[in-house]
Design goal:
about 100 residues; alpha+beta; three-stranded antiparallel β-sheet; rod-shaped
Length: about 100
């Protein structure tokens, strides 16, 4: 629910009111009781962006993305196919030796 600014033209009373967008505009002033209240133009239900904004440097450059991809590839563990073949052949030879001794 947005906050609306109101101003009474009769007494000059100014205040903020937190109300739903579907609620009717308030007409009667809570200070003087006259029907001279009006809602001021302001942020109302709009989105308000605070801060310094967005800059070109807020987004990653292509060079950074390429370097990050290269780093990922270099940090991945390499599967050594030579080591696995020698391990399997040594297991086969040890298995055949144990089979002949029985």
């Amino acid at each position: 629910m947005p906050t609306y600014d109101y101003l009474c033209d009769a007494c000059g009373h100014e205040f903020e009111l937190f109300q739903a967008m579907s609620d009717p505009v308030k007409r009667k002033c809570s200070e003087c009781g006259k029907l001279k209240l009006r809602r001021l133009f302001g942020t109302g239900g709009a989105i308000v962006f605070k801060g310094s904004g967005f800059y070109q440097t807020d987004y990653r450059s292509d060079a950074y993305k390429k370097q990050e991809a290269a780093d990922k590839k270099s940090s991945e563990p390499k599967s050594d196919t030579k080591g696995s073949k020698s391990d399997s052949s040594s297991n086969k030879s040890s298995g055949s030796e144990s089979g002949t001794s029985e």
